[in-house]
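URGENT: need a sanity check before tomorrow's submission.

F., can you look over the Enoyl-CoA hydratase record below? I want to be sure the sequence and structure line up before it goes out.
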Amino acid sequence: MTSTFNNIVYETSDGIATITLNRPDKMNTFSIDTMLEFVAAIDATDADDDVRVVIITGAGNRAFCAGADLSQGAATFDYASQGRDRERLMVNGIYRDWGGWMSLRLFNSLKPIIAAVNGAAAGIGATLQTAMDIRLASTTAKYAFPFTRRGIVPEAGSTWFLPHIVGLPTALEWCFTGRQISAVEARDRGLVRSLHEPDDLMPAAREIAREIVDNTSPISVALTRQLLWRLAGAAHPMAAHMADSRAVHFRGPTADTKEGIASFLEKRKPHFPGKVSDGLPDIFPSWVEPEFH
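Structure tokens as predicted:
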């Protein structure tokens, strides 16, 4: 199935949703309209039980996403000059960063997200990936976190996400210098899982997605994603123990768990009946979603 957007392409097939940033003539740069459509597409994947995994890529062979659309020139980051679209994200006189708004939506996704980076990934094209779960790249890909070279700072919550992935020293170097990062360096430093020839990139991403779709419980995957991301900043492993104890307590008696054990013992593929839309058990009873202030 294909849904209609102007700046992205949204397709679903066999349990996999593919979101393609579709402005190849502008190297798939993000405009305000693209950002709104991107979040709407993630909302759609969460609401659709037939979608088990999300793959995000870029149209064409030049860029995954070359950053923000700079067509407004020097006014690109002068949010007060951008009118009503920007006003919707103003809180207490501060304009919220659109990239962070998107990253936080990815953080709360109920489905695992794979980035298939098919070319240049700079600015928001690099930082937004840090909120995704698995990143594969083409051998032609290149990265940059060029914010200090533009007189601004890293955005999209990347100063939280990036050090968790590559470590603080690498994050500091990349963000201080703003230099170009090769696909090989991105892989060697841990930002990218693996490199693939351009024609092999999407098949490799789909192979990982297929492994998840065919063998795992949707509810268990959603809970595991919550556990790993929410606990990344926990002060003590007791926080993990309390959350995973609740998860096992609630999941243990379910039909999914019975099917998982039966399929293992019978040496067959599992068929998990549980649906994410049925709701997730509350394994973080004291969790309060932080508010911007």
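My own read: The mean pLDDT is 94. Residues 17 and 54 are 5 Å apart (CA to CA). If you see anything odd, call me.
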